[in-house]
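Let us begin with a simple case.
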Amino acid sequence: PIKTHPHIHEGNALTTDWSKIIAPQNLNFIISNPPFVGFTYQSAEQKADLLAATKLKSKNIDYVCAWYFKAADFIQGTQIRCAFVSTNSICQGEQVAIIWKPLLDKFNIDFAWRTFIWNSESNQKAHVHVVIIGFSQVEGLQKFIFDGKEIILAENINAYLMNAPNIFIESRNEPICDAPPMRVGNRPTDGGNLIIEAADYEEFIRREPLAKKYIRPYIGAKEFINGKMRYCLWLVNCPPNELRKMPLVFERVKAVETFRLNCKSPITRTSKKSPALFQAIAQPTTDYLAIPRISSERRKYVPIGFMTPDIIVSDDVQYVQDATVYHFGVLISSVHMAWLKTVCGRLEMRYRYSATIVYNNFVWCEPTPEQRARIEATAQNILDVRAKYPDASLADLYDATAMPPDLRKAHELNDKAVMKAYGFAQNMTEAEIVGELFKMYQAFIG
């Protein structure tokens, strides 16, 4: 029970001058659970408050960040210690560099509780994934990282809540190393009119037999991971006289034109001039390595795999054209997975793989010819073991419980080969791997 009388001041904490409520020299702690509102869902007033508090014009920062900036200014030159419950998104993806670069010039992170589910006692409770971050200008404090039941003594806690130097992984358009580029798949923006569901495929072909040569398999992340079929009308080389001979197809194309005409986006409205085509076409012309943009955090490895160019890839899959089995081996290794888990954005807790943050900033190893050959062999072994289960989807194969023992063993051998190529000890923890990768990244960018 609170024995003293509390003094409650009601108002907008972001526009209120805190020093008029209490002088900084009379304050010991600031403890808060600020509101979590993603940029897309913020009101005009909230966006204005966020801009005023942070001076950041980015369109991808959470409302909770405003409290960090407000507190950072207030505690300058004091011994005040702060701790905020925050949405975990502020420590993930491209948001990290934007908000934490200026913040870590003003204070140090004293302790951090890594992502956990915040449960309320409400009957309509929502499971929110949060972190707790303690910060101040106080020097000489022992720093702690809490991760479930584990307590880690840290020398420094960076913006990714790792025991590592203050390094910021910023958006990059091309790979930092000599690696093949990663691209985003094709974006239809068609109102669903160019897409044919598997259940409708046979009937559509029966009614419109001339369309068969223009229908191609179409994969997004769900189809790729779960082994499902979907199709699309791929009319890239369809002459207008043939298009007009296919009334069902022509009807769908006209529907695309209408859909795009009614869209708010100027780019989409402009693309009404080519309604037979996907709005953004980026189809690989050779075999490619497909990486789903969203994948479950419950899997030890993000399922990736090779596809042929006749399969149209959607924009919720990213791909590396002309990737070799060596590239596959490194990207599906525990080394790359550790990097991904640390720097990627998240959708709730699911991994959000991005080329600009994850892939383009990943520092590749420089293997000897023997080490490269070993990775190629272990990576090919993973593919060979997968092929033994033709009826199993990637979701089946990479389920944490159902993963076949021979596939698990193949991955372990590949992990060892990649670790050796990086010069990492085989018994290194995931956190230690990430710490070394951060050092390599820092050395690489100078």
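The second case is a distinct protein. As before, the sequence precedes its structure tokens.
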Amino acid sequence: DAMDSDDAEIYYAVLAMDGDDMGQWLSGTKAAPLLNSLAGRAQEYLKEHWPGPKSGLPTADAVQRPLSPGYQAALSEALSNFSLYCAGPIVRAFSGQLIYAGGDDVLAMLPAANALDCAHALQLAFRGLHPDDPEACAPNRVKKVLKDLFHFSGQIDKHPRGFLQLRRSERADVGRASHLKPNWPLLVMGPKASVSVGIAIGHVKSPMQDTIQAARDAEKSAKAVPDKGAFSLQVLKRSGEAVGFSAKWNQNVIAVWSELEADLHDLSGRFAYRYAALVKPLVVTGGGWNGASYVQAWSDPLRDSVEAELRHVLHQQGGCKPAKARDLSRNWIDALTTALPPRDFLHFWLAWAFLNRCRNRQNPTGP
């Protein structure tokens, strides 16, 4: 019927976020250097009189702040500020619904097309980074949402890292006085902290508990990335097929995804499917009872081959002129093959192509 037809391509996202190594933060293993807590003259005194390596001790700048009730209180305040004042507004700004926020944990539902940007904004807020900070690697959409919600200095170096201040519009609850929310800079975890986020894209008619569990599993995949600070995006198609990939926030995978999402190059919606079809025989070496077997690592010939295929598809299917196809393919392949193994490289394109098709079918005339 009409309802079944309307629901045929409707997918949504569940986002599960968790702070990395929180046990080490709580135990003081990741505490900031003691020098950071001292005034200038006290720092100089400690550096001058600290016995250091000659006495079997670390250097003065490596001495960590001692674990104390004040340290634990500051840590608790940072986590509470994020969950009480940051997580909800960010999720709602991306048209999502917050299910749970407690300390470093967040669970939310969002439109599929908004989930990765929302996750990026959440992890930047958790760390208290200026959205224009080069370390943030933030797409324009993420920058706009954060700047609408929080006050940032126009100069990046003037922003105190590890703090966020709600804009006046965000401090006002409906029907309540604006002073009920803090109007001062809020302490958050800081740039040395990181989070891992799992995103599962599921069909509206699939059991929600399955999609939530898939998001939790994706979160574990993100935490399995070396040094953490990563995300994992998994697409659960109604056919039963699943595709997904994992990457770190500070890699250029996000930049390529955002460039595709922004439709800056007026590419045909079919080009990504065509490209994935050409790449698959190059990175899949066989199949077995438990699924396909993939090439484990990049070689120069393989990297050259996938770049040549992308250049060809951008020209033939995407309508790019040869020079533009050459530049785009070189930049995208460099970014993606540096960060993703061959399997995740293929799944990156399959995931983007699928979500792009769903978005276009749900919004055939554009946003």
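The longest helix spans residues 69-93. The longest strand covers residues 11-19.
Keep these points in mind for the review questions at the end of the chapter.
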